[in-house]
Amino acid sequence: MRVGVVTFPGSLDDVDARRAVRLGDHEAVALWHGEHDLRGVDAVILPGGFSYGDYLRCGAISRFSPVMTEVIAAAERGMPVLGICNGFQILCESHLLPGALIRNDHRHFVCRDQRLRIESTDTPWTRAYAPGQEITVVLKNGEGGYVADEATLDRLEGEGQVVARYLELNPNGSMRDIAGVRNARGNVVGLMPHPEHSVEELTGSGTDGLGFFTGLAGWVGVAEAVLS
Amino acid sequence: MPRVVVDVMPKPEILDPQGKAVLGALPRLGFSGVTEVRQGKRFELEVAHVDDAVLAEVEKMAETLLSNPVIEDYRVRVES
Which of A57, A93, A107 minimises the CB distance to B17? Predict the structure, then answer.
């Protein structure tokens, strides 16, 4: 598959995300925030970083960038979209995902190897994992506290839209320990931790994040089966 | 030139870590008696004239860009 990774001014993890895509056996395609062009990709990743300097609110300006018009339209047609960290913030600001991300409750930037439980595997990004599988990936954020009103949180849990939950320690004050969520359809996933940093033994916390990038191929089969 | 001001504040039920940091700093500087601090944003929009249509536009700006209605409330007012 051809997987696009958007670079915004201030993106940090776009190169790592493209590398993870290649390690997942897909073709990585660089996309630029200022273009109305997805270059024919089959899926899109919005990487971590500080797009547009986090001005106004994290993701608030990026949401209106030219490429996001295309990403939002493609997501609504069912294209797989993964937002990691700042990408998650952009997806919330775009209203592709419910809720919002606010400053960590303890007010410090956090950087650690984080234990997670994968709770929804009905997504193109998590189908390589077993339901309930526990993994450890890198987490690094300053504004990673997931918030939503009680009714939304109840709905997310009731509909199985919580993709990942923090284990052992809630690193940022996220409500109900939520580390990632998906939309109702399942094609759009937002995740605060960074699986793209946990794909090679050489550089840290193991390879537990690789599944986010290897599962995609199978999802295309599912989508085609539904369409045919 | 009239000015339209948009005040954006975190919703009361949303944690405001920045406000809490300010609240913690005040007593260290010798200021006492403050029991709560909430930190928000103020936008000053200079407009050619003010009428209902302009204010309706500003409401739309406040809702789509200046605030995130999931976590923030906003108030639009005209400053003379």
Answer: A107
Domain count, chain B: 1
Domain with A182, as residue range(s), is 2-227
pLDDT tens, chain B, 80 aa long:
899 999 999 999 999 999 999 999 999 999 999 999 999 999 999 999 999 999 999 999 999 999 999 999 999 999 97
Under a CB-based contact definition with an 8 Å cutoff, are residues A84 and A46 in contact?
yes
For chain A, list residues whose CB is within 8 angstroms of any CB belonging to chain B.
56-57, 60, 64, 92-93, 98-100, 102-107, 145, 147-148, 173
Rg (CA), chain A: 16
CB atoms within 10 A of CB B34: 10
Q: What value of ipTM does the predicted structure carry? A: 0.90
CATH of the domain at B57: 3.30.1280.10
Structural domains in chain A (count): 1
Q: The whole model's pTM is what?
A: 0.94
